């Protein structure tokens, strides 16, 4: 099977550098005139798929908003993933998993084994039990053409205290994550399958992202205050690897399908103005 990096590179070339999240916040459900229940969740998700599944490179369901409805919410997550795949977008499940290696193996089986009902193209993962503990995810992703996006410098202000802490060898925690993911992507072309999450809100990172070789997912755009122009400051010479990610900024245009499409088109134009052509 083709690697995730190759598939992502093609999706970005064909559809443009954009990831849109499915984050059915209670406030958005209300704004869309939907009940804050499983039916509302289902209608919301199906509308996003209808509007964006056939035009956006990557769609990123936020697992928390499905999990809060228990098993019936997870069933809707499963069907949303299937619908997105049928519509042709890559599915990145934002689930930020991480644990000791033997448990990570089970998370890997859940999300990166094609026989699982919640199998997706890629997942987000937390490295704070050590990047090495995520090895079962990296291995299964490599085997089945999947991807893993590891948190490095997150968009929330609280992240810096942990991520910018300095380790015994003088590197920050974030730089150790960046360096380990860079190693995994060594030699991959046109793009590695192992990405990093770097928030668009954080300003000049002071970190070296030039050797990552994989995609740099940039949340924090729109509702969290960053704009496309901020990508220049955050990513500098690594802009060509950036995958901008918007959730509420686009979703708040719904429930009208045409308005959702127009919102996604608008943020894509903003991002294209900043990012090098791919
Ligand atoms: O550093 C991070 C990592 C993940 N996220 C997630 O992205 C979306 C952002 O939603 P917006 O509505 O565009 O603010 C959300 O699912 C977060 O959990 C992030 O924001 N920052």
Automatic annotation (TrEMBL):
Its EC number is 4.1.1.23. Keywords: Decarboxylase, Lyase, Pyrimidine biosynthesis. GO terms for molecular function: orotidine-5'-phosphate decarboxylase activity. Pathway: Pyrimidine metabolism; UMP biosynthesis via de novo pathway; UMP from orotate: step 2/2. It is an enzyme of class 4 (lyase). Residues 17-263 form the Orotidine 5'-phosphate decarboxylase domain. InterPro entries: Aldolase_TIM, OMPdecase_AS, OMPdecase_type-2, OMPdeCOase_dom, RibuloseP-bd_barrel. The active site is at residue 96. It catalyses: orotidine 5'-phosphate + H(+) = UMP + CO2. It comes from the Bacteria. GO terms for biological process: 'de novo' pyrimidine nucleobase biosynthetic process; 'de novo' UMP biosynthetic process. Belongs to the OMP decarboxylase family. Type 2 subfamily. NCBIfam families: pyrF_sub2. This is Orotidine 5'-phosphate decarboxylase. It comes from Micromonospora noduli.
